[in-house]
Amino acid sequence: MVRQLGDLMRAAFATSIALGVGWTAALLVPLYDFLVDDEQRYLPISYVIAWTGIAAAGVAAAVMSFSKLRTRRPIGWTPLVAVPLVIESWLLGCLVALVLG
């Protein structure tokens, strides 16, 4: 019982960290506007890359967590897998805005 409670606490803490990083990245996506010139043809591409990556990171973390839950293994820090994926997708969108913009 204590072991399950500890795993639940770790999973809740890891989920809150992942959601916080995702929320912060989502709030920072509009900063791409400052990286491009007046001609903003490629800005929607960088937005799509960033938003798709943030959403896909959340889906990947949820799928991995539910897979562990279904097989009755401890979830633990599994939701933290979304953090590097969110950061990478935001940076990739930023790179696209810099290079194409």
UniProtKB/TrEMBL annotation:
Keywords: Membrane, Transmembrane, Transmembrane helix. The chain crosses the membrane at residues 12-32, 44-66, 78-100. This is Uncharacterized protein. It comes from the Bacteria.
